[in-house]
């Protein structure tokens, strides 16, 4: 069962990687350059060092996003987003996507 959860996380990561690569390329090549960069605070439910590290790494490896900082109390991950729909929407997308899957494989 654990192997299936890791596979599910890997499939999500590849899907997000491809989608983000396409969106980032489109944004860069677009003549309008209608960018909405933001630093977004993502409240963390994952608690282990391994879980936080995996989440931060997956966010950073996804084009258009970079993990910037983890708060001292390890309750918030700060993420730079190249093109944000809004801070709440961006944080929610990270939480319902990567973080939910990571919590199934790591505490």
UniProtKB/TrEMBL annotation:
InterPro entries: Cation_antiport_E (IPR002758). It is found in: Cell membrane. It is a multi-pass membrane protein. The keyword Membrane applies. It comes from the Bacteria. Keywords: Cell membrane, Membrane, Transmembrane, Transmembrane helix. PANTHER family: NA(+)/H(+) ANTIPORTER SUBUNIT E1 (PTHR34584), NA(+)_H(+) ANTIPORTER SUBUNIT E1 (PTHR34584:SF1). Belongs to the CPA3 antiporters (TC 2.A.63) subunit E family. This is Na+/H+ antiporter subunit E. It comes from Azospirillum oleiclasticum.
